[in-house]
């Protein structure tokens, strides 16, 4: 009921997976049935048991491995979505904050421009006042 795993036409990686699976099935049933001891012995000799019971147990093992991989994959996809949304939210907040700061900067610049205009106007008015004062002083001297 056992054949060499090299006669299955599998790659070295596939053979190692099969051997590991057969050993895992045997370890799970350790101290159990004669077939589990036979599977463990066959696996250590580079053989694969081909009876329906051994193949069925190996199939169930790989089904559990695939289910575990699928669950881990789903978890990682959820985590990556969470991270993506978090980064997107933070980026959106940064953009909103940057927009608010840019608007604030424009308001400050407008206030500066307005103050500069007021400063120029006041400077002109000051010159006019100086002129009036000089004329007033001249008139006062004349009188």
TrEMBL record:
Keyword Cytoplasm found: yes
Principal location listed in the UniProt entry: cytoplasm
Gene Ontology CC terms: BLOC-1 complex; cytoplasm
Single GO BP term: endosome organization
InterPro entries according to UniProt: CNL1
Keyword annotations from UniProtKB, A to Z: Cytoplasm
Domain of life: Eukaryota
Subcellular location: Cytoplasm
Family membership noted in the UniProt record: Belongs to the BLOC1S4 family.
Function of the protein: Component of the biogenesis of lysosome-related organelles complex-1 (BLOC-1), a complex that is involved in endosomal cargo sorting.
Name the UniProt record assigns to this protein: Biogenesis of lysosome-related organelles complex 1 subunit CNL1
């Amino acid at each position: 009921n056992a054949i060499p795993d090299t006669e299955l036409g599998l790659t070295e990686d596939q053979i190692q997976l099969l051997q590991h699976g057969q050993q895992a099935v045997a370890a799970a049933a350790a101290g159990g049935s004669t077939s589990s001891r036979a599977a463990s012995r066959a696996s250590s000799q580079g053989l694969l048991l081909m009876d329906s019971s051994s193949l069925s147990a190996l199939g169930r093992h790989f089904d559990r491995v695939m289910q575990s991989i699928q669950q881990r994959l789903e978890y990682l996809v959820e985590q990556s979505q969470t991270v993506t949304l978090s980064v997107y939210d933070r980026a959106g907040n940064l953009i909103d904050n940057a927009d608010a700061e840019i608007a604030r900067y424009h308001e400050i610049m407008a206030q500066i421009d307005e103050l500069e205009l007021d400063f120029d106007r006041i400077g002109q008015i000051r010159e006019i006042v100086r002129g009036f004062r000089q004329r007033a002083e001249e008139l006062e001297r004349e009188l």
